[in-house]
Amino acid sequence: MKNLTLFSIFLSLFVFGLQAQNIKGVVLNELNQPLEAAYVYNLNSETHAHTSENGLFFISQTKAGDSLKIGLLGYKTSIVQVTDANDLNIILEEKVFQLDEMVIREELNPVNTISRLDLNVTPVNSSQEVLRKVPGLFIGQHAGGGKAEQIFLRGFDIDHGTDLAIGVDGMPVNMVSHAHGQGYSDLHFVIPETVNKIDFGKGAYYASEGDFNTAGYVNFKTKDYIDESSVSLSLGQFNTLRTVGLFDLLENTKNQNAYMAMEYIATDGPFDSPQNFNRLNLFGKYIMYSPENDKLTLTASHFTSRWDASGQIPQREVDNGNITRFGAIDDTEGGETSRTNLNVTYDKYIADNTTLKANAYYSKYAFELYSNFTFFLEDPVNGDQIKQKEDRQIFGANAAINYSTFLGSTELNLTSGFGLRHDIIDDVELSRTLNRTTTLENIQLGDINQTNIDAFVKADFEFGKFRVAPALRLDHFKFMYNDELQTNYETQSETKTIVSPKLNFYYNAKDNLQLYLKSGLGFHSNDARVVVANNGKDILPRSYGADLGTIWKPFPKLVVNSALWYLFLEQEFVYVGDAGIVEPSGKTRRYGLDLGLRYQINDWLFLDSDATYTHARSIDEPEGEDYIPLAPDFTFTGGLSIDDLNGFSGGLRFRYLNDRPANEDNSIVAEGYTVADFNLNYRMKNVTLGVMVENLFDVDWNETQFATESRLQNEAESVEEIHFTPGTPFFIKGIITYNF
């Protein structure tokens, strides 16, 4: 037995030695910028690899004389012969994007490759469109354009981010224990022209994603460089103005990139009471590559915004003609907010098969919002206006090491990571106010300290066409709250640790057919004020989910992705803003079907569509009273896009959201809508002229709707009915851009 064990060890070392011949290299574009996710395939040994964010690759079982095939969608495929063991430097030439060249088996993440196609064909030009690039995700604005949008995904009314983890360049966007709601995610600090990649996933199957990753996650990656500098000006109805500038600061400087971007927006909106909205964004990014292809990235950004709002208006006042659809009951709503971000990222090539990615970030954030949901229900004299305010600092860091090796003939990719986030939130306030000037009563006022430490490990075993990816994540939370309305000083605190396992399977049945089964546990945290008040109960309710899906190319120019999915949530959170509390609403169950397709009709014309059906119900309620308010059960989006047809680009897009229950027994219904948008651009050398039309057919639609009990000043009794914010009517603007 002892001799057999020694023989096994010797054999394993011998096999590993045979496989230890390997080559590393870097893949660049014609501007000498690294290309991420390029596929490197050894035509002789049939081993393969993908390039990292730095453009680096490491491919095993490769020796002098072998031929490597290197490909990436949007670039010409290159075949190079390995002449010696020196590092390879490969340049790929950019070309027209051809969907028929996509091979699903070769893609690192086929679904995200599809989103890269969408972003390439129909670039985003507003913060709202950034989120709409995620298939099946809908948003709605209901506070004058300056507040974070309401989000809908997979049968969730996510509010402002309670069940969707959102990040930018490794920095979290979700705000824990926010004055206006748990998970509040304001993406308005992102200048859309700087977005390079959208990485997203539905469900809670990803070890690197923690708090709020129940329905899914979305991570945005900004551009490392810009091809050319540009300035743009757009003018439209409702006194709308937007100007954007992107400036290359280090043209043709080897191993360094730097650019700066600026955005300014102002509009009154279509409302009877002008929004007086404005926003200023500043963004800068610097990148340096070392001789060893290590990468250091410095990013800084600042945004500030202020606005007035008409809020949600009661349907009865529109029906009786007292106000128009764009009128107001209390037009003193509105607010102001700002955020400053500093982010340092380091990508280190430790060894041929080991890489490190780390970042550290700091955010300074301020928020002040005035709302009136119920008008004169609580205070028949002064009205029910409230103020929500906070000042916050966020300190954080993340690090992950990726290691690749072989266990016999099985390829193993192992990633382990660590993260820390610490929020210091001063003077978190909820007060009753009058006309935004007079504070009538402080309902809540205090300071929050909240810390989240996480660690994860995930493995990826590849057995030919079959891949297994188990993972484990650990999160530890510390909640602390000091109530300033109490006479005696006291720090209330709670701690909680949670472990979230994941297990995913992938099978490449053919080159262009992938089947997968994803499963995992996720969670969303509760507000620190609620956590300490409830003595630690319902701190981190779990989600349990699974996806069974396919990504398929039945024809060369057609990609179809589909998924049957299930999600159980231990505790749903409903934030009641005017009371400053989070109401638990019990266990919920959702299941449904996602279906999407991308079809390239010819070199310049693309068709896309995405549909989601969801059955969403509360588990603990009797049948007929178990509806989840505002949970969409069917959404459908799609469009036709033109990409570079003799200088022309643009498209026609639509989105459909069906009727959905506004309360638990479906006696109040939030009406659905279908809205179409159109844009067309024409480039003449360095000048691009464009026109954009929102709501092309000028339909009446409600962007957000709520079943709310309210009372007007002249009413004796309150009424519960739909209160809504109207969607934008026909809106046209012209754009001129100069590139240099």
UniProtKB/TrEMBL annotation:
Keywords recorded for this protein, A-Z: Cell outer membrane, Membrane, Receptor, TonB box, Transmembrane, Transmembrane beta strand, Transport
Subcellular location: Cell outer membrane
UniProt cross-references to PROSITE patterns, sorted A to Z: TONB_DEPENDENT_REC_3
Protein name per its UniProtKB record: TonB-dependent receptor
Lineage: Bacteria, Pseudomonadati, Bacteroidota, Flavobacteriia, Flavobacteriales
InterPro entries tied to this protein: Beta-barrel_TonB, Beta-barrel_TonB_sf, CarboxyPept-like_regulatory, Plug_dom, Plug_dom_sf, TonB-dep_rcpt-like
Domain TonB-dependent receptor plug as annotated: residue spans: 105-216
Boundaries of every TonB-dependent receptor-like beta-barrel domain copy: 298-696
Record membrane topology: Multi-pass membrane protein
Keyword Transport appears in the UniProt entry: yes
Pfam name, any one: CarbopepD_reg_2
Family listed: Belongs to the TonB-dependent receptor family.
Top-level taxon: Bacteria
PANTHER family assigned: BLL6948 PROTEIN, TONB-DEPENDENT OUTER MEMBRANE RECEPTOR
Keyword Iron-sulfur belongs to the record: no
